[in-house]
Every structure is written in structure tokens, then in C-alpha cells.
Amino acid sequence: MSLPLDTTDRKILKLLQGNSRLSHKDIGLRVHRTGQAVGQRISRLQALGYIQKYTIQVQHEHTQFIRLMMQNNQFESFEQFINQQEQLTACYKTSGSACYMIITHFTETEFRFFIEQLSHWGHYSVDTVIKEIGTDAYPV
């Protein structure tokens, strides 16, 4: 991602973040370009790494943010455990007070079981989402 984005590139990225199923023609109408020109720009943005994948957004009933402070150096086994969990949205190795930030979508019963397993690696703190306010769109 070495080339700077122009205004049209930024508009295209913003539109795709809102709805990645928009056709090149629909995007073109909104950014005042032809569908073909939009397709070429999208291909370039993919080649440069600005667009890495197209996804869907699933509405979850429960969301938890878990900070894990490791009590041992078993990072590799912990990461293997994490990669087996289907209810995780993300897990980040972090600096600061926590070693990992984990975002999950467990029901209460599943969450209790997960936390019990998690305690083998260290202690944790949990924040549970009670209301979604913002967007998950990244700044362009």
C-alpha cells in the first residue's frame, strides 16, 4: 500500500465498505465514472492491498471483549486453542496491560465454558456489549 489514494479511490472504498455487493456500474454512477473505470480501480486497489477480502456482517446477540493477561509463556498452545474457536470474531496479540484482546460472540452458557478454558492460560477481564453505537467501517 505505497501509492496514495485519490478522492475517487476513497469514495469507492467507502461505498464497498457499506455494501460490497454493489456493481461496478452502481458505484460508477455514485462516483461519476464508468463501470469499466471503477472495475479497473477496484482491481488496482486489490493488487495494492487496500482491498483484501469481501465479507458479510452477521448480527450477533452477544459480544464480549476479553483481555487476557498470560501467566505462562505458552503463547503457541494458546494461539492453537484460539484458532479452534468458532465463536471468535478476532484475537489480537497486544502491548500494554493485556497480552491478547479477544472478541467473541458466545451465549451465556458457551461463554462460561470458554472462560473456564481460558483461565488455564492466565487471568482475564471481560467487557460485554450492551448496545452497538458506531460502525465497523475503517477510515479511508
TrEMBL record:
InterPro entries: AsnC-type_HTH_dom, Dimeric_a/b-barrel, Tscrpt_reg_AsnC-like, Tscrpt_reg_AsnC/Lrp_C, WH-like_DNA-bd_sf, WH_DNA-bd_sf. Keywords: DNA-binding, Transcription, Transcription regulation. One of its GO terms (molecular function) is sequence-specific DNA binding. GO terms for cellular component: cytosol. Pfam families: AsnC_trans_reg, HTH_24. GO terms for biological process: response to amino acid. Coiled coil: none annotated. Residues 5-58 form the HTH asnC-type domain. PANTHER family: HTH-TYPE TRANSCRIPTIONAL REGULATOR LRPB (PTHR30154:SF55), LEUCINE-RESPONSIVE REGULATORY PROTEIN (PTHR30154). This is HTH asnC-type domain-containing protein. It comes from Acinetobacter rudis CIP 110305.
